[in-house]
Amino acid sequence: MPNDTSHIKRTIDLTFYARILIAVAIALLAFGFVLDVNGSTKLIDPVKGVNNTSKKGETITTIDIFHWNDDIEEIGIEPIDNISINTGGGNNPSTGGTGSESGDTGNTGSTPTGGKTGGTGNHGGWTPGTNPGGNPGGGNTGGNPGGGTSPSPSPSPSSSPSPSPSPSPTTPPTPTLDEVNNNLRNSIQNTYGISIKYGSETNGYYVGGLSTNSISNASVVNASLNQLNTAMSLYPNGFWREIKNGGIPLTVYLIDSYSAYGVTGVTDSNYSFANISIAVSYPFEDTFFHESYHYIERYIFKKGIYYTSWEGYNPGGFTYGSLWRDQSFARTGAAGAYFVNDYAQTSAEEDRASTFEYMMRASYSSCFSPNQPIWRKAKTMSDSIDAAFNTVSPGTTEYWERHL
After folding, report:
1. Residue 183 banded pLDDT, cuts 50, 70, 90
2. pLDDT 10s digits, 57-109
């Protein structure tokens, strides 16, 4: 009977070593997960290229819903004063009328009766008495010229003529508010390398199954352009042009509202274009910061950087599309909340865009306290932007990083 003892021993040894290897693998996975959740490692895994060809050609439209106060600050237009010069009466001096009567002829040996006073205007005429013994009683000098001042005497031939006054410089016309808006739009476009449409230029714009209403008030356009300019200036120099030069040009549509109430902004994009439309009837900055991240993330993905472990920062058992109100920082104010607001719980993309919106706010939120769940998400997003952009340096604290 053949001896199978050695065969059995080898089988036992292999089984023993296999179990050890499995145990070690499980331990390493668990240790990696702990590191990931504690923020010791990044949640991004850079890869050499875009490895999902179907995703690369896909157009994604993100529709963002109102969750702020419904108001807008409008800037009034100061009226332009019409300057007029009141000339009053005529400026050309009128010559007085000629004196009307001559003096009477003097009688012999008596004092002649003088003629009546000359008429208003030029000196009144008088004829001296002609008979002997009579003192001529000529008419009095005519009155002051009527209807204005007397004309200045003409210069004598020997006097030099007065030099002609220099013409006054022409004041350029005051530009209209429409012209001011167009100049401001051109300045923003040239500075950041984007395109901007507003007013009648957005007529008929349809996106995400929604029609849009254009802005008809020039003062609202002006306020929105200034807010856009201020918001875009908070990003690093050359940041917007880098995305454009990377093949994703941006057009911003400034509209009044969408056909559905409560929609604040829509980003319509793929890997070759991006359109951001903003309903300016809602607070501008939060909407722009939120939508801008959808655009930024397009570029991050195009550079081959993905969030492969993002859901590891969410509470156990949570799935996007559900609503855990007690985990919304906007509702509870709890620093340990997992989401900045309810809307962040709709999808991973909206979670990141909503988080970025809070990162760009002027005021500090306690959810960015170190090692809190939202702080970890924000740090991971900052790391991904650092990795994707040449215009962003890991050694520089960018505006979105100042609270971290």
Report:
1. very high
2. 567 788 886 543 322 222 222 332 332 323 333 333 333 343 433 444 444 34
- Contacts of residue 256, defined as CB under 8 A and 6 or more positions apart, other chains included, come to 212, 213, 214, 215, 216, 220, 279, 280, 281
Do 3 and 69 belong to one domain?
no
Looking at the 3D structure of the chain, how many domains does it have?
A: 2
For residues 307 and 338, membership in a common domain is answered with yes
Helix, strand, or coil here: 248? coil
pLDDT tens readout for residues 237-252 = 999 999 999 999 999 9
Examine residue 107 and state whether it is found in any structural domain, yes or no: no
For residue 129, being part of any structural domain is answered with no
Closest by CA to 95, choosing from 55, 149, 28, is 149
Closest alpha carbon to 293 in 207, 379, 359: 359
DSSP state of 402: T
**pLDDT over 50 (residue 27):** yes
Q: Which two tokens stand for residue 288?
A: 């722009």
Do 355 and 374 form a contact (C-beta atoms < 8 A)? yes
Shared domain check, 254 and 218 = yes
DSSP character for 157?
A: T
Say which residue the tokens 């949640």 belong to. Answer: 43
CB atoms under 10 Å from CB of 154, counted, come to 7
pTM above 0.85, yes or no: no
Tell me the one-letter amino acid at 373. Answer: P
Q: Please, what is the end-to-end C-alpha distance for the chain in angstroms?
A: 75
Cα 11 from Cα 23, distance rounded (Å): 18
Q: How confident is the model at residue 48 (pLDDT cuts 50, 70, 90)?
A: very low
CA 187/CA 185 separation, integer angstroms: 5
Please tell me whether residues 193 and 181 are part of one structural domain. yes
Beta-strand pair 274-279/195-197: unpaired
Number of separate helices (H) and strands (E) present in the chain = 9, 8
pLDDT value of position 63: 81
- Distance (Å, rounded) from C-alpha 241 to C-alpha 256? 27
For residue 9, what are the domain limits? 1-41
Residues 215 and 180 in one domain: yes
Q: Tell me whether residue 5 is in a domain.
A: yes
CATH number of residue 347's parent domain: 3.40.390
Instruction: Give the model confidence (pLDDT) of 105-134 as tens digits.
Output: 444 344 444 443 334 443 334 334 344 444
Please count the other Cβ atoms lying within 10 Å of the Cβ belonging to residue 166: 6
